[in-house]
Amino acid sequence: MKKRILTLSLTALLALSGCALNPSASSSDSGSSTSDSGNVTPRPTPASAVELYQLAPNKDALMQSYVFKTKNNKLIVIDGGIDGIGSDADPYLPSALRSILCLEEGEYFEVEAWFLSHAHSDHYYELSKMLADYSEDSNYKINNFYFDFPDFDDYYAARGSLGLPSYNYTLSTKFNKFKQNLNKYANVNGIDIESDSMLWYDDLNGAVISKDEIKWGLDIEIDGVRFEIMQTWDYADRKGCEDVNETSLVLRAWVEGQSILFLNDLGGWDSDKSSGARLVKTYGEALKSDIVQMAHHGQKGAQKELYDLVDANVYLWPTPMFVWKDTTTYQIGVTRKWVNDGKDFVLADPNNIVACLYEAYPSDPTSVSDWDKVKDGMKITLPYNPEA
């Protein structure tokens, strides 16, 4: 199969870098910069490894936010959402991202790529809040947005044809705000909107990621981290018309030969007409990955057959405490047994990284210094060796 490989041209960023400083560099070196006053300011040196963060502002919020920091200190975000506790609070991600880059409050940063998996607020609403507050004083930029969502007018019509409720107020209200907030970002940055709808969302949606591109093979490479785009929504999945989770993007990151599979909220728990079943049929044993993000926060999501094929050694659980504890409602005890030789467990370990079981969370999620105190407990250094 011929793959389309999209390699981003990355501009040099003045403020982005790791935490280690290089004080011996001269002003002519790439390790330093000169301010308007003529003073030489050492730049942090590149990191020795790629870092992956499974962020959580607290142990109770339903949310998913993954952040890669590359060796050259480029940021890549997958999702960035929140629901429930913290959803009405000020956005936490600007402070978390500055902390990951070892910056101070208010310092400039850029996100090189932002992937969104599907249109549920626990996966996009934190980004939406960031964009709602965006102004010329926000002091950050997002260089590329990647997502592929269905036309929800068609989606609701498909639901209606199945005898399901044809209107979802929560999705419609928050999602329409997200579209308007993207417009705000475009307007502040002087980005021309080309779609007839005059929504920048429509310019971005499916512009890079789509069923056709995936059919031919689509990789997006960002500063040494390769993202293999594996699946997007398809109305051929009957269950995809029943649940927005079924429209989840599936992508796999590759870092120095190690693979990290992001299932997001992929379904398939109880149906052979699901997005999970389609993924299994398409890839089979090629799903084998070193690390996997547990679908739908570890609860009723992808089926056992899929996890058996993935056969991972490390499991990422973006799971709130109320789900982790409730084995009856959410069936999370079942999925834990699937990936642990038939035995349930409740504690995290190097092979099971659980967001609601971190030792500490930021007291004030909008404070960079508070994230500085806890971020290392949410960090996975790649390639990751759970036995190290």
Characterization of this structure:
The chain is an alpha/beta fold. The protein has one domain (4-8, 51-382): Ribonuclease Z/Hydroxyacylglutathione hydrolase-like (Metallo-beta-lactamase, Chain A). Helix content is 25%, strand content 19%. The chain contains 11 helices and 17 strands. The chain has helices spanning 93-100, 121-132, 152-161, 169-188, 200-204, 211-216, 275-283, 304-310, 321-325, 332-338, 368-374, and strands at residues 4-7, 32-34, 40-42, 50-54, 65-69, 75-79, 109-115, 140-142, 145-146, 218-222, 225-231, 250-255, 258-262, 291-293, 314-317, 352-354, 379-382. Helix 1 (93-100) packs across helix 11 (368-374).
**Tally of individual domains:** 1
> Helical content, roughly?
10-25%
CATH H-level superfamily: Ribonuclease Z/Hydroxyacylglutathione hydrolase-like
The end-to-end span amounts to: 37 Å
Extended strand count = 17
By DSSP (H or I, 4+ residues per run), the number of helices equals: 11
Beta fraction:
15-25%
What key phrases describe this protein's structure?
17 strands; 388 residues; 7-stranded mixed beta sheet
Topology diagram in text:
Elements: E1 4-7, E2 32-34, E3 40-42, E4 50-54, E5 65-69, E6 75-79, H1 93-100, E7 109-115, H2 121-132, E8 140-142, E9 145-146, H3 152-161, H4 169-188, H5 200-204, H6 211-216, E10 218-222, E11 225-231, E12 250-255, E13 258-262, H7 275-283, E14 291-293, H8 304-310, E15 314-317, H9 321-325, H10 332-338, E16 352-354, H11 368-374, E17 379-382
Parallel strand pairs: 1-10, 6-7, 7-8, 7-9, 13-14, 14-15, 15-16
Antiparallel strand pairs: 2-3, 4-5, 4-17, 5-6, 10-11, 11-12, 12-13
